[in-house]
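Anyone up for a design puzzle?
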């Protein structure tokens, strides 16, 4: 879950910050699954009014989708477990707990919760610190530190490889 090494160029040189926006997929359904692990693996839909506001991956695999009427959802997937999600207290509390958890990984406390299921975490200081640790002679033997004060907390990585996708210019042929 911790941000992968996206790239190792200095944010300071770019004059910008690097933000990693974690987004909790199927957040409402995940909160119910965390409260009741017996729901994991079952098609689960969260209802508000007469619609599904979200559903888990198993429900999606079986043809359910967000904003679907409950009546239609039961027709498409008769075994769906529908839970009422109109009281937002549990989601608000889970969101605060997840934000606190992510903040524990932040080196400078720059973590902002934008909604229940969306957080922005400024990882500039983490990337800049680790950029200075890259072994220029053997970049494939680099180490990414997760904590400034604990050099053993982290993971080895190959700084000569780009993690993720690299796209050329839009008009490039």
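Challenge accepted. My sequence:
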């Amino acid at each position: 879950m911790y941000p992968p090494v996206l790239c190792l160029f200095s944010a300071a040189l770019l004059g910008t910050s690097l933000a990693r926006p974690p987004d909790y997929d199927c957040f409402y359904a995940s909160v119910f699954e965390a409260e009741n692990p017996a729901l994991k693996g079952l098609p689960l839909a969260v209802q508000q009014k007469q619609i599904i506001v979200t559903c888990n991956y198993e429900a999606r695999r079986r043809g359910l989708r967000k904003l679907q009427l409950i009546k239609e959802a039961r027709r498409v997937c008769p075994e769906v477990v529908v839970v009422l999600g109109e009281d937002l207290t549990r989601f608000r509390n889970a969101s605060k707990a997840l934000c606190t958890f992510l903040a524990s990984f932040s080196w400078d406390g720059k973590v902002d919760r934008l909604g229940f299921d969306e957080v922005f975490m400024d990882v500039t200081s983490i990337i800049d610190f680790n950029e200075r640790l890259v072994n220029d002679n053997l970049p494939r033997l680099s180490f990414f530190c997760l904590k400034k004060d604990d050099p053993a907390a982290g993971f080895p990585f190959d700084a000569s490889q780009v993690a993720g996708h690299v796209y050329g210019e839009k008009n490039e042929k």
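A detail worth pointing out: Residues 89-103 form the longest helix (15 residues).
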